[in-house]
Write a structure and sequence with these properties.
Blueprint: E1 5-11, H1 13-25, E2 30-33, E3 46-51, H2 55-68, E4 85-89, H3 94-110, E5 113-120, H4 133-168, E6 176-182, H5 185-196, E7 200-204, H6 218-225, E8 233-236, E9 247-253, H7 260-270, E10 275-284, H8 290-307, E11 312-319, H9 323-333, E12 338-343, H10 348-353, H11 357-363, E13 369-373
Parallel strand pairs: 4-5, 4-7, 5-6, 7-8, 9-10, 9-12, 10-11, 12-13
Antiparallel strand pairs: 1-3, 2-3, 8-13
Length: 374
């Protein structure tokens, strides 16, 4: 039977040639394809190809080479991700109240500070579009002051409610600061993320302007899709409930992306003081990538075993033609409390052709979703 040849990685010519040399030194036959012979150092995407039987051994050499020459294989012992500040966007709806309750429990465990940010309507933004701008501007200051006064009163009542909750639950003194800003919610929240530099962002799935057929609010959706934000984001549905943080079952859904190790490092930092069990699962339709998937999963198993020995981690590959249904079944069977995964920013074409797929994966259950930006 003829041996199957697969692509191990795609890289620049110099990196591909170096990898080829190392693989052959370990007795692994290797081939380069798509080489630009006229300008070999131009990064045109040279493919490093091997026999499928050598995949597992070749992957170990690839990871070692990437660590030494660019793509960093994350070592959490050298670069600890710290969570000492939590940012929560609020609009005083039940969704943001529930998000705040989660933030209080997490802050109590991590000894972190909470910053609440609320953006209220700024009448000056639309002044120039008003038919009679001069007449509009004459009342603008009064309108603005009234909106600011209302927002302050709502924020004060909201913080009072949260502190009362923390006191009733015996969570100790929680530091809660607040920011009221006039402007568009997305712009003001992203601005606060950059200046405050939180370790994690917490959002409700929807806000006060929710629509019956809306799975996720527009502000939350834009934050998840933003290429300017790389902070882990916990999205909390209104129906999710938490009384206390006891033992937590966490599902990390991997697609064997190079950003997995950084996401895992941040995930373990967020839950570092929790009693937790982890399930690292790759859900697949099983289209002929068995050996590749098994080799990648073994790499993740080795990473967990070497870096996070104190935790119970169960790694598995689940095949199904209906990935979403299988994930829901797994969540129910294992009593998962938090779903975590890396959310890649897709191209505009992808969003047009398949706009609902990511949202279905992220918000198909009543469980909070911890999203890492890929």
């Amino acid at each position: 039977m003829e041996k199957k040849i697969i692509t191990l990685t795609t890289n620049t010519y110099s990196m591909a040639f170096m990898l080829k040399t190392r693989l052959e030194a370990e007795g692994i036959e290797c081939f380069l394809s798509n080489v630009n012979l006229i300008q070999p150092n131009v990064p045109y995407g040279v493919k490093v190809r091997i026999f499928e039987d050598d995949l597992q051994k070749a992957l170990k050499i690839l990871k070692k080479t990437e660590k030494e020459h660019g793509k960093e294989y994350i070592d959490s012992k050298k670069d600890v991700y710290k969570i000492n500040k939590i940012l929560v966007a609020v609009d005083f709806s039940d969704y943001s109240l529930n998000a705040c309750i989660y933030s209080i429990h997490l802050a109590a465990k991590l000894k972190a500070k909470i910053r609440l940010v609320h953006a209220f309507f700024n009448p000056m933004i639309d002044a120039m579009n008003f038919p009679d701008a001069f007449t509009y501007q004459s009342n603008m200051a009064e309108v603005y002051q009234e909106m600011e006064k209302k927002a302050k009163a709502e924020m004060n009542a909201f913080v009072k409610k949260l502190k009362k909750y923390a006191d009733e639950k015996g969570l100790g003194e929680i530091t809660i600061t607040r920011s009221l800003v006039a402007g568009q919610p997305y712009d003001e929240i992203t601005g606060m993320i950059k200046s405050y530099k939180p370790g994690v962002i917490i959002l409700g799935t929807r806000g006060q302007g929710k629509k019956p057929d809306e799975m996720i609010g527009s502000v939350t959706s834009r934050i998840l899709e933003s290429s300017a934000i790389d902070i882990p984001t916990l999205v909390v549905p209104e129906s999710a409930r938490i009384e206390e943080i006891g033992h937590v079952n966490i599902l990390y859904a991997t697609n064997f992306d190079e950003s997995d190790y950084e996401a895992i490092r941040k995930l373990m930092a967020i839950v570092s003081l929790l009693d937790a069990s982890f399930y690292c699962v790759h859900f697949t339709t099983g289209e002929g990538k068995d050996k590749w998937n098994e080799a990648n999963m073994q790499e993740i198993k080795d990473y967990f075993a070497g870096t996070y020995k104190q935790y119970t981690v169960e790694c598995s590959i689940i095949k199904s033609e209906d990935v979403i249904a299988e994930m829901k079944n797994f969540i129910r069977k294992k009593n998962i409390d938090i779903i975590s995964l890396t959310h890649k920013k897709r191209s505009l074409l992808y969003r047009i052709l398949n706009p609902g797929l990511a949202k279905k994966l992220l918000f198909m259950t009543e469980k909070p979703a911890l999203i890492f930006h890929g």
